[in-house]
Amino acid sequence: MTEHESTTASSALAWSGPSPYCEIGRNHPRDRHRMKALDGYDLVWSCDRHSVFAKLIDAETASSLKRNDPFPMHDGGEGIITGIGDERGGGTLIYYRAK
After folding, report:
1. Which of 37, 47, 59, 98 is most enclosed, with most CB atoms within 10 A?
2. What angle is formed at CA 20 by the lines to CA 62 and CA 97, rounded to 5 degrees?
3. Are the beta carbons of 95 and 83 closer than 8 angstroms?
4. Which sequence spans correspond to the domains of the chain?
5. How many of the other CB atoms lie within 10 Å of CB of 45?
6. Residue 7: is its pLDDT beyond 50?
7. Cβ(9)–Cβ(17) below 8 Å
8. CA 25, CA 13: separation in Å to the nearest integer?
9. What is the DSSP pairing of strand 91-98 with strand 52-58?
């Protein structure tokens, strides 16, 4: 996904719920905690505890992605998908980390 596609996708999506749970917390209930919105980036959240990020992208793009696929970081760096999350606000949460 290019930066333009990302910007277009995020402008079409709306977030109306609380911050998403960290991917680790989703899978391990004893470590259940929410991510924090990342300042300066729309529809991107971070978990400092686990160095994981989440981004809301359009569902069509998300359906073509899978775990361990390369994924561009919000800051332009190289990332890797760690998981696919819930559908929310017209899109799907993608969990990723730095490569």
Report:
1. 47
2. 60
3. yes
4. 3-98
5. 23
6. no
7. no
8. 24
9. antiparallel
Q: Are strands 91-98 and 78-88 parallel, antiparallel or unpaired?
A: antiparallel
Poorest-confidence range of 27-31, 38-42, 86-90? 27-31
Sign of CA dihedral 37, 3, 88, 67: negative
Model confidence pLDDT, tens digit, residues 35-60 = 999 999 999 999 999 999 999 999 99
Q: Please, how many CA atoms are within 13 Å of residue 58, restricted to the half-sphere of its CB?
A: 11
Structure tokens at 9: 């996708």
Query: Confidence class of residue 97 from pLDDT cuts 50, 70 and 90?
Result: very high
DSSP state of 17: S
